[in-house]
Amino acid sequence: MYDYFNGKLVIKAPTHVVLDVGGIGYHIHISLTTYSQIKDQEQCKLYISFQVREDSQTLYGFATEGERQLFNHLISVSGIGPNTGRMMLSSITPEEIQRAIINGQVQIIQKIKGIGPKSAQRVILELQDKLKKQGPDALIPLPLAKQSVPEEALTALVMLGFGKPQAEKVLNSLAASDPEQTVEQLIKAALKRL
């Protein structure tokens, strides 16, 4: 529903912020990782994960798209709710969590408050393949500069769930055979080969 909010930071605390966007103050829960990245700013942009439960509608904000993506992966695991996901991202960096999941390091995940051995194993079991497919640089924010046609097509294919190395290989061969293709043509042709 919401992708991001960009506004003035009215209140900053290690667990939440109030962001004034167009005269409306949004109470947004944040991780310590995000807090450390925005604490010196007056104005900021937070990527939002909007969580609806029976008894609440809660906004969770992240300084980077990669952190939000990892949060959404974490809360997709049975037994990991938004507060636990936020606790995980506050305990160790998103990069450390991703590395621990990909390498199957149960003991690192288990050290996080509120995560027992079974939960740590479940997180690794359910997310290891997804994170491996995304590649090691999945948490690095995408550049805001204009992307080339093959780069734009690659971004779209990765978002559709295809592995980055495989999609890149197919797109490179398609772009080499016809460099004048549009993004849409390139994606359609790649989908036939993947």
TrEMBL record:
GO terms for cellular component: cytoplasm; Holliday junction helicase complex; Holliday junction resolvase complex. It is found in: Cytoplasm. It comes from the Bacteria. GO terms for molecular function: ATP binding; four-way junction DNA binding; four-way junction helicase activity. Keywords: Cytoplasm, DNA damage, DNA recombination, DNA repair, DNA-binding. Residues 151-194 are annotated as: Domain III. InterPro entries: DNA_helicase_Holl-junc_RuvA_I, Hlx-hairpin-Hlx_DNA-bd_motif, NA-bd_OB-fold, RuvA, RuvA_2-like, RuvA_C, RuvA_C_sf. GO terms for biological process: DNA recombination; DNA repair. Pfam families: HHH_5, RuvA_C, RuvA_N. Residues 72-91, 107-126 form the Helix-hairpin-helix DNA-binding motif class domain. The RuvA-RuvB-RuvC complex processes Holliday junction (HJ) DNA during genetic recombination and DNA repair, while the RuvA-RuvB complex plays an important role in the rescue of blocked DNA replication forks via replication fork reversal (RFR). RuvA specifically binds to HJ cruciform DNA, conferring on it an open structure. The RuvB hexamer acts as an ATP-dependent pump, pulling dsDNA into and through the RuvAB complex. HJ branch migration allows RuvC to scan DNA until it finds its consensus sequence, where it cleaves and resolves the cruciform DNA. Has three domains with a flexible linker between the domains II and III and assumes an 'L' shape. Domain III is highly mobile and contacts RuvB. Belongs to the RuvA family. Homotetramer. Forms an RuvA(8)-RuvB(12)-Holliday junction (HJ) complex. HJ DNA is sandwiched between 2 RuvA tetramers; dsDNA enters through RuvA and exits via RuvB. An RuvB hexamer assembles on each DNA strand where it exits the tetramer. Each RuvB hexamer is contacted by two RuvA subunits (via domain III) on 2 adjacent RuvB subunits; this complex drives branch migration. In the full resolvosome a probable DNA-RuvA(4)-RuvB(12)-RuvC(2) complex forms which resolves the HJ. This is Holliday junction branch migration complex subunit RuvA. It comes from Sphingobacterium haloxyli.
